[in-house]
Automatic annotation (TrEMBL):
Annotated PANTHER family: OS04G0668800 PROTEIN, SI:CH73-390P7.2
InterPro entries in the record: DCC1-like, DCC1_Trx
Organism: Polynucleobacter sp. UK-FUSCHL-C3
GO molecular function, one term: protein-disulfide reductase activity
The protein's name in its UniProt record: DUF393 domain-containing protein
UniProt superkingdom: Bacteria
Length: 139
């Protein structure tokens, strides 16, 4: 028996091109409307309501399921990919044996995201926009 998925809000760094690319891609896969996106640098983000400071949100990936407390780290990716109908990625990010690798990788990325994004972000941002545009025109 499958359980209904609760909507998930992802809190992301809108100043990071690579983060933007991921959000654009997930948005294009959000056919069921189970994902919502909030830029932690924007006026919609309220640290008091979420219970997560901007500094914390910049250091780790945070999400919040409707009516629940915020979650952080690798589980956020697994939940987001599940809602975006990306079962292979959801499975990979939910495997306990892989979690230390994902945690280490994301910690490194979070620390150097602006440098990494400066190098490869524009390419992935263009790619995500192209994929998103081609999906919207083929519907």
């Amino acid at each position: 028996m499958r359980h209904a998925l609760l909507p998930l809000t992802l809190f992301y760094d809108g100043a990071c091109p690579l983060c933007q690319a991921e959000i654009i891609y997930l948005s294009s896969r959000n056919q069921q409307g189970l994902l919502r996106f909030v830029d932690i640098n924007g006026p919609e983000y309220d640290p008091q309501v979420v219970g997560v400071s901007c500094e914390q949100a910049l250091a780790r990936m945070y999400g919040q399921m409707e009516g629940r407390e915020a979650i952080h780290g690798v589980p956020v990716f697994a939940e987001a990919y599940r809602r975006a109908n990306l079962p292979v990625l959801a499975w990979l990010f939910s495997q306990p044996l892989l979690r230390p690798i994902w945690n280490l990788s994301y910690r490194f990325f979070a620390k150097y995201r602006h440098t990494i994004s400066g190098l490869i972000g524009p390419f992935f941002l263009r790619l995500a926009k192209r994929v998103s545009h081609s999906k919207s025109t083929s519907i």
